[in-house]
Design a protein that fits this description.
The complex is a heterotrimer of chains A (393), B (230) and C (171). Chain A is built from 14 helices and 16 strands. Chain A is α+β, with helices and mostly antiparallel strands and 393 residues long. Chain A has 2 domains: 7-50 and 261-389, no CATH class; 56-226, no CATH class. In chain A, the strands form 4 sheets. Chain A has a 6-stranded mixed beta barrel with strand order 5-6-11-8-10-9. In chain A, strand 3 (91-92) and strand 4 (95-96) form a beta hairpin. In chain A, helix 2 (18-52) packs antiparallel against helix 12 (356-373), helix 9 (262-293) packs parallel to helix 13 (375-382) and helix 11 (308-338) packs antiparallel against helix 13. The mean pLDDT of chain A is 87. Chain B has a single domain, classed as 3-Layer(aba) Sandwich (Rossmann fold), CATH 3.40.50. In chain B, 32% of the residues lie in helices and 27% in strands. Chain B is built from 7 helices and 10 strands. Chain C has helices at residues 3-18, 53-58, 111-116; strands at 51-52, 64-74, 80-84, 118-122, 124-125, 128-129, 145-154, 160-169. Chain C is an alpha+beta fold. The chains are: A alpha+beta (393), B alpha/beta (230), C alpha+beta (171).
Chain lengths: 393, 230, 171
């Protein structure tokens, strides 16, 4: 017979030391919220780069730039040469899917120059100089408002405001931005779900070249007809050594980016684990103290006929109730804190989303930790000498 | 109905470097339906003996046979359920669970049995009625007097109808009036319900209620004149 | 222990033992088929008086040359690779403190020196480039020293390509 103590016993025990219970629940809430945040962060980070990677798109950049698109300079004519020499390039309605682009981290100011104030703040932004061909190679990009930009116009990603740390409305269609000495009206907004592109501002390539006094590009994006068919592109790069080009499949490029951010990802989990560890330690101590407080009572329950396992189960139920209550509070906290939030990282940003997976990690994690925290108290209960414990004051 | 036999029982404790032997080669027989009273000075081993009878502790040597079961041979995992079926324990302090009402405290042993809620209610009501506290069923232990708490503890001990009730100084913390009430209750359980009762006490007035008395001193038992014998 | 576990342990043990002896050539990657090249391409000994890559880049277009260098980049699906002048320092040179995963890209070298010291080697099958990678052919791999014999072709940008008729891979 291994009957359990009534649930009421576990529930009412929680009210014995209200402060202890509340503190334990708060710790659980914090851990649940942190686990959700860490999970959302890691998933956001991973899916952002995974979303941008395409197995039919390669990035051609300068071989001396060490794969840094901001440092890369590719001759302005490289795109045309690639079009002419590489037969595998995808053509959409006769237009080759080859996009020469400038990638630039720059300071962006809000509003037209005529309204500029002396104390205005410059916001770090990521500007990509593009032609209409960019839409052929970046399929994830969809205009959600307005139209593509012409001279003196830009379109902005829906996470650009967040990345720049400015209010959403300041990057609305019709607003004016200034960067690199030029003034641009926002004529469209775009989405590119699960990619870093969503945090960018797209300006006309030729205009950006003029403003930045560059006669080159940063990179050339090339889309081929069949996934992985980059041999022609590689051959081009090796035959035209004077251009100093390197070809990287975009899937590999973004894999490397993910690997680059791996320490940050690990740090997020380590932080969550440290807090969780501290919470488990605290909760474990609280439970141990509860066992110590109730030693004689527990022994008398054993004398009545309850096994030490039944007592341990009741204690685990107490811990789980606190963890679950804290967990629910933590999930609510995470939902509120992360709602619509996004993370700025390097020159990009991605959305934080407390999705089902993150909620499961947060709530499941906190329940598991709650159970784990009962271990020392359970061991202690299992070792109770009833005869000795009955003599406790 | 349950009979008890102790055969050459020895129990030792180690306290630091010292080995204490509260019971040494003790043999004893208690007949079914006895109200057995064990007297003796503090530290003489009375509670130790009681714990052995209630399967709370195990002897280092000898046999403890209760209702035909050799408790020393009972596997550890079976001891708790054996206790729930055979023994009702009344402690010197009531040891009620402070967060549960009198009713719920009495109900505790019944959760160990497959039993309907209605049957539990019937039994708890009967037990509380037997100790005269049915009207206090909804009270928490802190809302009861010491004597009432101890009577609730007795109700808890009898609610599952165990054949053996062991009581360790059940009146030790009570005033005269409350103590009389508790002792009367135990006597009635012995007489009216045929419970075998083993009670440890150092109070001669309490001891007088027993049908058989023994003295435990320096690990040895000494038979005393039965109560009421000239 | 299940049969599967025992087999796994045996396979791991065999793998561990084999590392002590001479390693067999790495198996071909099915995603990167190795080019099937004529036996005549393989040179049993290094031709004497081979030029450096820098010297070859200065030679006249259309001449037969023998050039020595180290393998830099290798194309995955065509028998094409680049060779770097022996005077250039790869990132795998002793004393290089950078933990570079692709030392054959010579990223630690001065870009101007690198531009002047690299040539392309192509292996043709008839008029077309031979398909399949040349990596692992006759032990050829990144940073291996090779001597290539073939016809030099140069474009107006100064890019030098050797259409290989023979390749010696130094072991």
């Amino acid at each position: 017979m291994a009957r359990s103590l009534p649930l009421d016993y576990a529930v009412r025990n929680l009210a014995r030391r209200p402060l202890r219970t509340v503190l334990s629940a708060l710790a659980s809430a914090l851990v649940a919220a942190l686990l959700v945040a860490a999970s959302a962060f890691v998933r956001g980070l991973d899916s952002t780069f995974a979303g941008a990677a395409r197995d039919d798109v390669a990035i051609v950049l300068s071989s001396v730039a060490q794969r840094d698109v901001l440092r890369s300079t590719v001759s302005a004519g490289a795109g045309s040469l690639i079009e002419a020499d590489v037969p595998e390039i995808l053509r959409v309605g006769g237009t080759p899917a080859v996009s020469s682009e400038i990638h630039s981290g720059t300071n962006v100011r809000l509003g037209p120059l005529s309204e500029a104030r002396a104390d205005e703040v410059a916001h770090p932004g990521f500007v990509r100089g593009v032609t209409d061909r960019a839409f052929l190679v970046h399929e994830a990009v969809t205009l959600i408002e307005g139209r593509p930009g012409r001279t003196g116009e830009v379109i902005v990603g829906r996470l650009a405001a967040r990345q720049m740390g400015v209010p959403e409305e300041s990057l609305a269609v019709g607003k004016v931005l200034r960067f690199e000495g030029g003034e641009f009206t926002i004529v469209g907004r775009f989405a590119a779900p699960g990619t870093t592109i969503e945090a960018e501002i797209w300006a006309p390539l030729s205009e950006l070249r003029g403003l930045t006094k560059r006669d080159d590009s940063s990179v050339v994006f090339v889309r081929v007809e069949r996934p992985g068919e980059f041999a022609g592109l590689e051959l081009f790069a090796l035959r035209r050594l004077d251009l100093e080009l390197v070809v990287i499949p975009s899937s590999l490029y973004y894999q490397e980016l993910v690997a680059y951010f791996r320490p940050i990802r690990a740090l997020a989990w380590i932080m969550a684990a440290l807090i969780a560890g501290a919470a488990v330690f605290g909760g474990s101590n609280a439970l141990n103290a509860a066992v110590q407080d109730r030693l004689r009572e527990l022994a008398s329950l054993c004398a009545v006929g309850y096994s030490t396992w039944a007592l341990a189960r009741s204690l685990a139920v107490e811990a789980l109730l606190v963890a679950a209550a804290g967990g629910v509070a933590g999930l609510a906290l995470a939902k509120v804190a992360l709602h619509g939030g996004s993370i700025r990282i390097a020159m990009s940003a991605f959305r934080l989303d407390a999705d089902a997976h993150s909620v499961l990690v947060g709530f499941g994690g906190v329940l598991l930790l709650g159970l784990f925290g009962t271990a020392p108290a359970v061991i202690r209960i299992r070792r109770i000498s009833i005869a000795t414990a009955l003599k406790e004051p | 109905m349950i009979s008890i036999a102790l055969d050459g029982v020895t129990k030792r404790y180690t306290k630091g470097e010292h080995v204490l032997t509260p019971l040494e080669n003790v043999s004893l027989e208690i007949a079914s339906g006895d109200f057995f009273v064990l007297l003796g000075p503090s530290g003489s081993g009375k509670t130790t003996l009681l714990n052995l009878l209630a399967a709370i502790d195990r002897p280092d040597a000898g046999r403890v046979i209760v209702g035909g079961t050799d408790l020393a041979k009972l596997p550890s995992g079976r001891l708790a359920s054996w206790r729930s079926e055979h023994v009702g324990y009344v402690f010197q302090q009531a040891n009620l669970v402070p967060v549960l009402t009198a009713y719920e405290n009495v109900e505790l042993p019944l959760w160990l049995f497959p039993m309907s809620r209605a049957e539990r209610h019937r039994r708890v009501s009967l037990a509380l009625e037997a100790v005269g506290l049915l009207e206090r069923a909804a009270h928490l232990p802190r809302q009861l007097s010491g004597g009432q708490e101890q009577r609730v503890a007795i109700a808890r001990a009898i609610v599952a109808d165990p054949p053996l009730i062991v009581a360790d100084e059940p009146t030790g913390n009570l005033d005269h009036e409350s103590a009389d009430g508790v002792l009367t209750l135990l006597s009635r359980l012995n007489v009216e319900r045929g419970k075998t009762i083993v009670m440890v006490t150092h109070d001669p007035r309490a001891a007088a209620r027993g049908t058989r008395r023994m003295q435990l001193d320096k690990g040895q038992l000494l038979d005393l004149q039965p109560a009421g014998t000239p | 222990m299940s049969t599967r576990t025992i087999l796994s342990v045996l396979v791991l043990a065999l793998a561990a033992c084999s590392q002590g002896s001479e390693s067999p050539p790495p198996p071909a990657d099915p995603a990167r088929p190795v080019a099937v090249l004529p036996a005549s391409l393989r040179l049993e000994s290094a031709p004497s008086a081979a030029l450096s890559v820098v010297e070859v880049r200065a030679a006249a277009n259309g001449t037969e040359v023998a050039v020595t260098g180290r393998v830099k980049d290798i194309v995955a699906t065509r028998a094409v690779f680049t060779i770097a002048d022996l005077s250039l320092k790869s990132c795998a040179e002793p004393g290089d403190t950078m933990d570079c995963e692709t030392p054959w890209d010579y990223c630690c070298e001065d870009p101007a020196r690198l531009a002047a010291g690299v040539a392309t080697v192509e292996v043709r099958s008839g008029a077309e480039l031979a398909t399949g990678t040349i990596q692992t052919w006759n032990g050829l791999d990144h940073l291996k020293s090779v001597v290539v014999v073939g016809k030099l072709t140069k474009d107006d940008k100064g890019n030098a390509t050797i259409i290989a008729s023979g390749i010696y891979v130094q072991s």
